[in-house]
DNA sequence: TGTACTGTAATATTTATAATTACAGTAAAG
DNA sequence: CTTTACTGTAATTATAAATATTACAGTACA
């Protein structure tokens, strides 16, 4: 996987710490140690998934869309997931081989089961509990 | 993640289908649709983890090291895993920020829990059951 | 002694990820 | 009504990771 889950959780933790104050993408980028445009892109995604809200214009910024105990990490995961947990081959296996012909489907089925287990587990983690660890 | 889990499972499935006959890396590469050197590298790793055995020299090749019902996909996963399930940021977060200073450790702890859940789940998948799907 | 393999390292290529730049749009404040 | 400080988003460039390729030494059988 890539770093998107980390960045999203980092953003949400900072927004939680701000307790409703609007926070700028510049500030967030400073703590994450990356650049504001990338953070805004991730914020855009989080907003699309209903986890944060934003305000444009001068004195604008970002805040959580709901209370931190309602932000489950399963939601965050769903918001950023893009690749299979068990990975994915770049090349199509050989369709002339009985194994090659079917293996992708079988691996995909298995991946689905694993992902369900992950999401079920992540359902028990929420932002409120996570934030508490920092104090 | 990358394609290593796929390749390893593909290899093992083909070796299982060969029922003890030695199989060459060339043949494996043909079904997987990649090149033999890469397959041998993966075979080397699987051997290191006790899942296959190899024979050098002319008429050499590869076969399973144990019966397919004893090859759990949790073992395969352990053999190829390298990155965190929840990903990892490239940059160190800002140590001057209370959140940035601690977040990596907290994310790592969470990742550990998720990974344990994945492995527990993968423990129920074995090569024998997987191979059956192909007939 | 030739042949058909494995084992492994070094290098090149491709793809994925992240960083940067740029600028239009918006709203507050003077 | 203009400046200022933000967001939103796209386009481009840079960097890192993954995979492919090449090469060749080592091994065992015939």
UniProtKB/TrEMBL annotation, chains A, B:
Q: Which Gene3D superfamilies match?
A: Winged helix-like DNA-binding domain superfamily/Winged helix DNA-binding domain
Instruction: Kindly give the PROSITE patterns that the UniProt entry links to this protein.
Output: HTH_RRF2_1, HTH_RRF2_2
Q: Which domain of life is it from?
A: Bacteria
Q: Which InterPro entries match?
A: TR_Rrf2-type_CS, Tscrpt_reg_Rrf2, WH-like_DNA-bd_sf, WH_DNA-bd_sf
Q: Provide the leader sequence positions.
A: none
Instruction: Give the matching Pfam families.
Output: Rrf2
Q: Which PANTHER family match?
A: HTH-TYPE TRANSCRIPTIONAL REGULATOR YWGB-RELATED, WINGED HELIX-TURN-HELIX TRANSCRIPTIONAL REGULATOR, RRF2 FAMILY
Q: What is this protein's record name?
A: Rrf2 family transcriptional regulator
Q: What organism does this protein naturally occur in? A: Mucilaginibacter gynuensis
Q: Could you read off the lineage of the organism from its UniProt record?
A: Bacteria, Pseudomonadati, Bacteroidota, Sphingobacteriia, Sphingobacteriales
